[in-house]
Amino acid sequence: MDIRNKANKIRLLNLKTPQMRAFHLSWLAFHICFFGWFGIAPLMAVVRDDLGLTKTQIGNTIIASVTITIIVRLLIGILCDRIGPRKAYTWLLCLGSIPVMGIGLADSFETFLLARLAIGAIGASFVITQYHTSIMFAPNVVGTANATSAGWGNLGGGTTQILMPLIFSGVMMLGVNEAFGWRLAMVVPGIVLFLTGLAYYFLAQDAPDGNFDDLRARGELPPAKGEHGMKENLTAAVKDIRVWALFIVYAACFGVELTINNIAAIYFFDNFDLTLATAGMIAGLFGLMNIFARTLGGIFSDLFARNGGLKGRVRWLFIAMLCEGIALMFFSQMHILALAIGIMLVFSLFVQMAEGATFGIVPFVNKKALGAVAGIVGAGGNAGAVAAGFLFRSETLTYQQGLFFLGVAVIIASLCALLVRFSPETEAEEDAAYQDAVGDQPSAALSLR
């Protein structure tokens, strides 16, 4: 896909350009998605008592919340190639708002499980966010753009942990009981999701020079590929070992983050004898690191690329993954609250930098099948969350033990980063594109103007 007029600088306060509108709308939409996707997580202690859920059943709902996302992420990337990120995001947000509000109708484990399964589709929003920024920004800043948009979107995991207990408390002030309170609280993120979907349709555009339909009408973009073309793109991505290496890597970073988002509040609530609001606040710190941590991962990816090219991006990804695994193992052994919080923040820093580093590489793997590659790698995050979910559904395995084993798995997965290699021709081509995007007057990737 040959997209022209990509931005070579991120001007945060400039909303006049289509590139920056796409940047801000994409991270905001992904951020809002977390309110629907994980809005119920900080309220699970209340839901557990209301529906009489066991630890195994809670684990099953955690798995359900991320399982369906694997399939939807695979499809949504191809859909972006076909109809554009603007329409794809609008449909996902508006349709996704329905099960978010509908979860309040659950009256048993089975109906609650089905609701969380349906809500999981919203997690595909990440792929659209990364797709949209990938086609809007030039090689010298695409790593930073991808990491920042995804990081500020993932920040929703932290704000959700903090705000949902407050929304729940506000609902309780209306005089309702807890059993009805958590159901009513989930209506709020559902409404916000629907309104965000409408905003995306009217305020965003697919590419710097217009929407995909307009570009195709002017002959500036190839016609939308039919079923055969979509299969070709997917096949090319599936046959590339680098895509699956990044799939595993992303499973071990974003998959871990999703898992922590699901269990952090109840983990601190049960193990440190805290109130629901306090546990949610502490759990929220993990997600709040996204305000800068994932951006750092992308910035370092672009910096490593300045001197080391695509090989430099790969080396940085390996370093970030290795440090993530070590920090997670240490976090699993903490029994003093202050130390647990401190190590959690260090672990959070590296897991999110690893995510930014991963999607600092994705745009260069196969540009003709960008949607398919982004979809498969993005699905890896949810596959990792599903696999990790089985560690935390066992009645015999403690959360501490599960986290330790997860840390070991991350260290092993870091080796997969070294399987991502590029041909000398691709290295030379991308190095030239990088230097062309930087120009004669290199400037900071991020600026306020």
From TrEMBL:
Keyword Membrane appears in the UniProt entry: yes
GO MF terms held by the record: nitrate transmembrane transporter activity; nitrite transmembrane transporter activity
Keywords: Cell membrane, Membrane, Nitrate assimilation, Transmembrane, Transmembrane helix, Transport
Domain Major facilitator superfamily (MFS) profile: start-end pairs: 22-427
Domain of life: Bacteria
GO BP annotations, alphabetical order: nitrate assimilation
Keyword RNA-binding on entry: no
Main localization of the protein described in the UniProt heading: membrane
UniProt xrefs under CDD domains: MFS_NRT2_like (cd17341)
Name of this chain's protein: Nitrate/nitrite transporter
Organism annotation: Aidingimonas halophila
Lineage of the organism: Bacteria, Pseudomonadati, Pseudomonadota, Gammaproteobacteria, Oceanospirillales
